[in-house]
Amino acid sequence: MPTGPEPVADPHRVLADCTDRALEREGIPMFLAFQSADARPAHEEPVRAEGARLATLVGHYRSALAPERADDDEPALIDVLQVMAVAHFTPGTTAAPNSEEQ
After folding, report:
1. How far apart are CA 102 and CA 97, in angstroms?
2. 80 pLDDT exceeds 50?
3. pLDDT of 6-20, one tens digit each?
4. CA 26 to CA 37: how far, in whole Å?
5. Nearest-CA neighbor of 6 among 63, 70, 53, 64?
């Protein structure tokens, strides 16, 4: 389950911090998976809401990190996934790192 519903304030800083870490040694596995583009029905509204929230976060980070790159630019997607993994899927966190409060 993702932690922190809001995007981090400075995704460039989070990405820079990611490059200095060996995430797999910290228990943060990184996988890039492909799935069929065919829509599958979601029978539960919470599933749809969570998917929409994650899609919004991906769009936000994509625009913030690499607005000049093409939508199918693989390195840009990898950057987005790294920031999402650290900011929203790191075990034991309750809020996104690098938020305005810090």
Report:
1. 8
2. yes
3. 888 899 998 888 777
4. 32
5. 53
Work out the number of other CB atoms within 10 angstroms of the CB of residue 57.
Answer: 22
Tokens of 92: 């034991």
pLDDT digits (tens, 9 = 90+) for 9-65: 899 998 888 777 766 677 766 665 555 556 666 678 877 888 888 889 989 999 999
For tokens 């069929």, the residue is: 36
Helix axes 45-65, 11-19, angle to 10 degrees: 80
Q: How far apart are CA 91 and CA 40, in angstroms?
A: 28
Assessment of whether the complete model's pTM goes beyond 0.90: no
Residues with Cβ within 8 Å of 28's Cβ and at least 6 positions away in sequence, in order, are 85, 86, 89, 90
The pair of structure tokens assigned to 101 is 């409060």
Which tokens go with 30? Answer: 């990184």
Please give the Cα distance from 24 to 47 (Å, whole number).
28
